[in-house]
Specification:
- The structure is a homodimer of 85-residue chains.
- Chain A has 85 residues and is an alpha+beta fold.
- The first copy, chain A, contains two helices and three strands.
- The first copy, chain A, has a three-stranded antiparallel β-sheet.
- The longest helix of chain A has 16 residues.
- Strand 2 of chain A pairs antiparallel with strand 2 of chain B.
Chain lengths: 85, 85
């Protein structure tokens, strides 16, 4: 079994309002950062996992995203898998 | 002014317990993904901003992270800046 790290981003889809992102945009504008046009806020998840190969690790991360981590109605996910050592 | 996108990750530092990450680990184990050893959960923020140059954009993102987005006592941040077009 090899060790992998998965870096997963889960973001609200474009079509959906993101009130947290709106709040961040306003907060940054109030700080004087008026050049920030839009902010969107989602989750970042780091998983340490073991698998026989990178393909198997990818399969597991897909399962994790689809069954637990992302709400596919409102969110989309993307990830990167890195081999450790 | 050029357009940039900043992809920011904000994660709880190693030394701090991450109960949300623990819950994710347990949830994945219950789903049959026993090979997941550790999960940590943080935020992912995408900013669209304008700046004269990539260096200026970086400065603005640093300010945003330090003054609003990250709690530097409990979190660390990292980011990537991409020029648009």
């Amino acid at each position: 079994m090899k060790k992998f790290i998965a870096e997963i981003d889960i973001m609200p889809i474009r079509e959906i309002l993101d009130p947290q992102g709106k709040a961040v945009t306003l907060g940054l504008n109030n700080l004087g950062l008026n050049e920030v046009a839009e902010a969107r806020v989602g989750k970042h998840i780091t998983l340490q996992l073991e698998a026989e190969s990178e393909d198997k690790a990818k399969e597991k991360v897909e399962t994790a995203c689809q069954k637990l981590l992302a709400n596919l109605i409102m969110e989309k996910y993307s990830y990167e898998i890195l081999a450790v050592e």
